[in-house]
Amino acid sequence: MGNVVLAVVVAVADTWVAYRHWHLDDGFGWALLVVQALVQLGLIFRRRMPEVVLGALAVVALAQMVPQLVSPGAVWPVGTEPVWVVTPVGTAFAIYATIVYGRRPRLGWVLITLVTLLAVRPWQAHVTVVTLGLVMTVMPALFGLWSASRRRLLLALSERAERAERERHLLAGRARDEERARLAREMHDLVTHRVTLMVLQAGALGVSAADADIRRAAEDLRATGCEALEELRDLVRVLRTPAGDGEVRREPEPAALPDLSGLVEQSRSVGVAVEVVQDGVPVPVAPVVGRTAYRLVQEALTNVRKHAPGAAVLVEVGYAADRIRLSVTDTGPVTAGDPGLSAAGSGSGLDGLRQRVEMVRGELTSGPRPGGGFRVSATLPVVVG
């Protein structure tokens, strides 16, 4: 809108000056007046094609000058005051636009030199003409150079700030990767080795014990330890894989999602009404993802038994080609809960669950529902990567 207003104001003002002081007794003067007005309306496009606009104004200035030199009085009367003998006013704006927005600097400077000579008219030196000519050409050029330099400086500062921000993110990512690697080393060197030793001891106890109950307990302990080792290996593998690494390896043997019926039956056996809804075709998932899904449902059902006695529970499992969606929603407590049972535990179950879900590149949300009750939901990738 500003370009349109500027072009119209300049065209009207310059046309009014020319009408007052040009020689308009013949068709050439009127034709030149119309052409000058139309060309100065072209200032609307001075930012998109500044060289074209400046070149057209240079042609108009030549059309004024050449006939006047060949036949004095052809355009303006011989006795016209020098203050009114000027090149088109739009030239100043076109020069500025050519320097700031121009894409062909050499052509731009050739045109600026040409219109400067036509505005100053060194072959007809006059103080007023020279002064006005310099004001209309050199001053816009100087202002354009300053403005262009300022634009380049601001652009450079912006690029430097963006580069610094990218470097900050890279350093933060590197620090996270180093911390993940450190945690992986500690888990491998300390936790995994200790659990392995426990599994071996449980296996030895199961072989050497004479009592059948002790052998069964030792075997259960050994099986639980083996499962814990599998989970630890999965977590160490995920920790050793830098976040965002394009070379993340898939799990070697994707398998079906662990059976949730055992968890559901446990809750039903203590009076919790649980309904399971499945959507989509089951797809194989990485073992670490399957165990994370199992732990999510387990933790959510445990929380319902502790904090929402009498609530009905809906477990939803949705499958897609590259992810699975799980949610456990309860309707809220019906009766007062057992204070001892509610206070049991560390109170960090959901926080630990969130960390576990994020470890496999998933997303977890939890919180009260508007109509009452509580909901825990997660979206997990089929593979870690």
How does this structure look, described?
It contains 11 helices and 5 strands. The model is unreliable at 246-252 (pLDDT under 50). The radius of gyration is 41 Å and the shape is elongated. The chain has helices spanning 2-21, 27-41, 50-70, 90-101, 105-120, 127-208, 212-240, 261-269, 287-307, 339-343, 349-359; strands spanning 273-279, 312-319, 323-330, 363-368, 374-381.
Number of strands: 5
Shape descriptor reads: elongated
Q: Overall mean pLDDT score?
A: 81
Strand content: 5-15%
Number of helices: 11
**Kindly, what is the distance between the CA atoms of the first and last residues, rounded to a whole number of angstroms?**
50 Å
Q: What does the oligomeric state look like here? A: single chain
The helix fraction, in percent, is 55-70%
Compressed to H and E, one letter per element, the order equals HHHHHHHHEHEEHHEE
Largest sheet geometry: 5 strands, mixed
Sheet with most strands: strand arrangement: 1-2-3-5-4
Low-confidence stretches: 246-252
Structural class: alpha+beta
Short description:
With 385 residues, this protein is an alpha+beta fold.
Descriptive terms for the model:
385 residues, alpha+beta, five-stranded mixed β-sheet, 5 strands, 63% helix, elongated
Question: How would the blueprint of this fold be written?
Answer:
Blueprint: H1 2-21, H2 27-41, H3 50-70, H4 90-101, H5 105-120, H6 127-208, H7 212-240, H8 261-269, E1 273-279, H9 287-307, E2 312-319, E3 323-330, H10 339-343, H11 349-359, E4 363-368, E5 374-381
Helix pairs in contact: 1-2, 2-3, 3-4, 3-5, 4-5, 4-6, 5-6, 6-7, 9-11
